[in-house]
Amino acid sequence: MLKINNVSKTFNRNTANEKKALIDLSLSLQDGDFVTVIGGNGSGKSTMLNAVAGVISVDAGKIYVDADDVTRLPEYKRAPYVGRVFQNPMMGTAADMMIEENLALAYRRGERRGLSWGVTKAERDIYREHLEPLKLGLEDRLSDKTGTLSGGQRQALTLLMATLKKPKLLLLDEHTAALDPKTAKTVLEITERIVERDNLTTLMVTHNMRDAIALGNRLVMFYEGSIVIDVAGEDKKQLTVEKLLQMFDSVSESGAVEDSLLLP
To answer: Whole-model pTM?
Structure first.
């Protein structure tokens, strides 16, 4: 469903601030894979996500989604392929629009726009049906402005919008990092339910090692623009934070674990 072939990306090339963000990176995901991605700041994980989403262009290599070459497609042309949830809960929704209007935008993604009623009664029924399992009471607040919701509610709504029209690939960019622990737990539970229900191929970047171990069927760790650990299946089920840190310690060139990886 996703194939990254020998992708490289360097920022500020030939300057004092040159940074090799991705170095000959290759990664393949099968249909239905839920891959968690961890690594320290500047390790390349978010650059990889941005390259897949089309936010940045790559210097070399190819990116395929469902066998289609999307390497040179701009971000808006990847919308039929990719759903994304950002770290900032405010980025995925329009604050001055009602909940139902936000959902309507997501529901019409990839369709031609014309002159018609903005939200039909039939659509409202669909939105209520999708909101009810979130257990946040949003199904009874369709006419509320999204800006009145809490950060967790907005992030849950963003997640629903990203998956309302089942994407070929779901990108989660540290989507619980800005939430308090209790709210983050709720959003992660909702994430797991939606991904499992719709069998979504998913890449989830996180700084939380316990979440990375607990969720998904595969875990990859980035270090200096490359993947240094790739664990799946039964091996992943046996992982603990301590084992993962030991693995990283053994493969990193310095032999020392970065402080930024020692997170709860």
So the answer is: 0.89
